Amino acid sequence: MPGSKVSQRRASDRKAQKDNSDDEAAAVQKTTKSKKGSDSPWLAADPSKRWGEFFFLAYSPFWIVLCLGVVVPLQLYEKYDELEYLLLGLVCAVPCWALPLVIVGQEDAKRPFFHRYWVKANLWIAIFGFVGNYFWTHYFYTVLGATYSFPSYKLNHVPLTTFLLTHSYFLFYHMISNFTIRRIRHAIRHISSRTVRFFIQALYIFFLSYVTALMEAVTIANFPYYEMVDRKAMYLYGSFFYAIYFFASFPMFFRLDEEPAKPWSLPQTAIDSLAAAMLVTILLDLWRISIGPIVNIPWAESLEQCAAHGLPWLTDAGSKILPKIRVQSDLINGPLIV
């Protein structure tokens, strides 16, 4: 009968619509799961960031073994001149940029080059590390009493080798911080008070920053051409000073592409890194004017030479803010890039 056929047709249409809705829901659920990645609280939600963090972490044993497991224990550095030190830095730093061009992650293959996490992470660390070496190393000379005495090409009286090596180990440090900060945030997500959550994270980041700074100082203790006036003071107090770098950078770097729905652009990445660098600069200089050197610097002699070979804000209108300082000859001699 006509009425019966119409009812059957409507029932068939409703069933088809329900099946389509179920299929769409399943597809959405699958896509959401793919975007979220693993349920592990350690891993990033963004698949490009997740791959990038694993890549930098997996690459790190190469430069660690090369520097701390081969060059230092075998004392190969005794045969190195400026060129060999420069090549060592390049061998450690260049793969951070070159390998992801060859080993392309599944998600990165779908993205434009400048939208990939590893590109933005490299840029952030490169800017932060450059500022750190070019400017903040002079605080090591004049506040911590630490110097480099190995032969090296220099930029602003800082070995170029340290610019390159910094890129590798800063990436390693910040990958560790990303994983652990994410885990901490997941563990305390049920605490209702935002203030309590903030202080828990801040305390953890401060602890991680200090441990990172201290472990770096300890691991390079067997390299004789990183000299310290007072090694014990450097470990105890200097590590607090060095930890300022990471107390600012760890939480700021963590934000990079942490929310998949809000990916960062390259300009945003660069601006954020420069902002972190400015924050560290302010904190380091506050230490200089409020606490001062952690040891008596034995090469203190003339303020004019400190101004000539240091930073412009290490003087107060040309006089009297610091002890008169002479930079050791091995910091100002040799090949120099100006």
Structure write-up:
With 338 residues, the protein is mainly alpha-helical. It has one domain. Helices cover 66% and strands 4% of the residues. The protein is built from ten helices and five strands. The strands form two sheets. The chain has a three-stranded mixed sheet. Strands 1-4 form a two-stranded antiparallel sheet. Helix 3 packs across helix 5. The chain is globular and about 95 Å long. The C terminus is likely disordered.
Mean pLDDT: 83
Straight-line N-to-C gap: 96 Å
Helix coverage percent: 55-70%
Tertiary shape: globular
Strand order of the largest sheet: 3-2-5
Tally of helical runs: 10
* Low-confidence parts: 21-36, 300-310, 315-338
What's the number of extended β-strand segments? 5
Radius of gyration, in Å, reads 26 Å
Main beta sheet, described? 3 strands, mixed
Beta-strand content bin: under 5%
What is the strand and helix layout of this fold?
Blueprint: H1 2-36, H2 47-71, H3 82-102, H4 117-144, E1 146-148, E2 154-155, E3 158-159, H5 160-187, H6 194-219, E4 226-228, H7 231-254, H8 266-290, H9 303-309, H10 329-332, E5 336-337
Parallel strand pairs: 2-5
Antiparallel strand pairs: 1-4, 2-3
Helix pairs in contact: 2-3, 2-5, 3-5, 4-5, 4-7, 4-8, 5-6, 5-7, 6-7, 7-8
InterPro entries: Cycloeucalenol_cycloisomerase
Keywords: Membrane, Transmembrane, Transmembrane helix
GO molecular function, one term: cycloeucalenol cycloisomerase activity
